[in-house]
Structure formats: C-alpha cells, structure tokens
Design a protein that fits this description.
Layout lengths: L1 E10 L10 E17 L7 E5 L7 E2 L8 H13 L6 E7 L9 H16 L6 H16 L5 H8 L3 E3 L6 E2 L6 E7 L6 H14 L1 H24 L5 H14 L5 H12 L4 E5 L6 E6 L4 H10 L4 E7 L2
Parallel strand pairs: 3-5
Antiparallel strand pairs: 1-2, 2-5, 2-6, 3-4, 6-7, 8-10, 8-11, 9-10
The structure holds (3R)-3-hydroxy-3-methyl-5-(phosphonooxy)pentanoic acid.
Length: 309
C-alpha cells in the first residue's frame, strides 16, 4: 500500500503563481491510500476508487493524454522503461475534492507510488515531484508547483517557483483550525481569473502580489524564530489582499468572522479560494472553541492541526 497526505497553504497562494514565495504544510492525518491487487494474465491495468468517491473499475489507456490517471501511469512506466503491470489499483481518499487541500496532487502521488510498487520499483522523490507537477497541469492549467512539492516531500516548505526546495523549520508548535465551507470551487478558474485581472490592470495587481510576498517573508521569520505573535495579523493582511484579487467568497468571509469572534488570532482562506477551506490560527486553550464556532457558523467540517510537533 502507498499513500500521500493532504496539504494546506499558510501564506502566499495565487501570488506564488507569479514568482512570489509561499508557505505550505502537509496535513498528515488526512490521506489518500492506494492498494494494489494482482490481476489474472491478459487483464489490463485498471483503477477503482473506494470510500466517498466510489466508482467501478476503469481501464487505464496509457495513450489518453487528457486523463490524469493515464498520464501518471505513462510517466512512471516510461521512467522505468517498464510494461504496464497487470494490477487493479484501488484509491481511497479522505481528502475532499476541489477544496484547496491538494486532493488531485495527493491522488497522483499515491497512484504513482503504487504503480512503481507494482513493478517492484521505488520512485525517487525528485522524479516523483516532476511527475506530479506534469499531471497537475491537467487539473490546474498553470500550477506553481507548490502542491506537488509539499505533498511529495510531506514537509512544511517555503516555496518559490523554479527555485530549489527550502524546508521550513518550526521550533515551536503552531495550532490551526481548518474549516471547510463545503463549497467546491475550481482552482483553475480562480487562477485564470486572477491572470485576467493581472493582464488588464498590471499597475494595480503587481503591487498586491508583491505585498503578499512581503507578508510571506515576515511570516517565515516569525515561524522559524518561534515568535508566532505576529502571525495572526499577517494572516488577516494576506486574506485582505486575496479578497482584492477576487478569490474570497461570502462563505469564506462568514467562517473567518466566526473564527475571530470565537477567539482565533487570525484567519484567511487557504488554497484557490472562492469556497473550499479556510484556516484560523489558535492557541491550545481556544482551539476547540474556534472549531465549534466554525461548525456553528455552517462549516461542513472543522479540525485542529498542529505544525512542528
Ligand atoms: O490546489 P489549491 O486550491 O490549494 O491551490 C493552489 C494554490 C494556488 O496558488 C491558487 C495555485 C498554484 O498553483 O499555486
């Protein structure tokens, strides 16, 4: 069996597409698993999804360039110069789709690892990261590469597009509550809308993106020095800039207000926006209160996660 985690973006989404830094971390308790079952001779490699997104088995046609599953299989098999194994791969995901938690990249990562396992190989993380990035293009259009990086390495990262990986050290645990609006939203559409805005009004949008980058760098210093007091305010500032980029939504605003009223130190949307998930910075004695406040305000689910433990 192979697996991969969900992820969340702490700071810098959208601006990261334009070369600004961003910070993201894995959510190791929320995972996709892939299990291999050998098929009889002559049967074609196929995929089945179980759990919430249950499906019938589908054959994987390697030549289908529009299929994320087939592309994953083809890239893995090409790398090892191997023939398709006669296996059924069953994918079970706990990660809600289209909600900013990296479900697509996690499924691709677990699937690629499973296909490698089925041919008795193991993919180096660097190669796996390249493969997942290629497949992300099918889901996202122009991904920055942050989702695949944080999910493949399963470590908190400070990420700048086309720059070598920088892991983030977290000397003092930081607690967040992740709240789901329950609204699924396409990252591809949100990213292309920001792209249109950027093209139409570069003089207004470019400084907003640069300001987000500045907040990310201040957040990094706060996190790595263990002085997390400024983080809440930085999150609220980052969120206000994301709102200007048109990627918030009434449901996200509602959950952010509820989190702050419930005692959170700061909150913002996380991921592509327009729905999906938001995050709130909390302390041990306010975490449960904030989680309840989010559920009372209509969050579909809310859970507490701690970084740096
Ligand atoms: O996959 P999501 O919804 O978490 O969004 C990824 C973050 C974006 O910055 C909006 C897009 C990207 O490719 O970096």
């Amino acid at each position: 069996m192979t697996s991969a985690p969900a992820k969340f973006i702490l700071f810098g989404e959208h601006a990261v597409v334009y070369g600004q830094p961003a910070i993201a971390a894995p959510l190791s308790n929320l995972r996709v698993t892939a299990t291999i079952r050998k098929l009889k001779d002559q049967q074609q490699m196929r995929l089945i999804t179980t759990g919430e997104n249950e499906s019938l088995p589908i054959d994987i046609h390697l030549e289908d360039v529009n299929s994320a599953f087939a592309t994953t299989a083809r890239l893995v098999l090409d790398y090892f110069d191997a023939l398709p194994p006669q296996v059924e791969i069953s994918i079970d995901s706990q990660i809600p789709v289209a909600s900013g938690l990296g479900s697509g990249a996690a499924v691709t990562t677990a699937l690629a690892r499973a296909i490698a396992e089925a041919i008795n190989q193991s993919l180096p993380d660097e190669k796996l990261n390249q493969i997942v990035f290629e497949v992300e293009k099918i889901y996202h259009g122009i991904p920055s590469g942050i989702d695949n990086t944080v999910i493949v390495y399963e470590k908190p990262v400070y990420y700048v597009r086309n720059h070598p990986l920088e892991l983030l050290s977290i000397p003092k645990p930081i607690m967040f509550v992740v709240g789901d609006t329950g609204i699924s939203a396409s990252t591809k559409i949100a990213v292309s809308d920001v792209g249109r805005l950027h093209k139409a009004e570069p003089n207004r949008i470019q400084p907003i993106l640069a300001s987000i980058g500045g907040l990310v760098n201040r957040a990094r210093i706060a996190i790595e020095s263990g002085h997390i007091e400024p983080l809440g305010h930085l999150m609220l500032q980052n969120h206000a800039l994301l709102r200007t980029l048109t990627v918030s939504s009434p449901e996200i605003e509602n959950l952010i207000e509820a989190a702050i009223a419930g005692g959170a130190l700061g909150a913002k949307l996380s991921g592509g926006g327009r729905g999906g998930n938001m995050i709130a910075l909390v302390q041990a004695d306010t975490a449960e209160n904030v989680r309840q406040a989010l559920l009372n305000a209509g969050a579909k689910r809310a859970f507490i996660t701690t970084l740096g433990e």
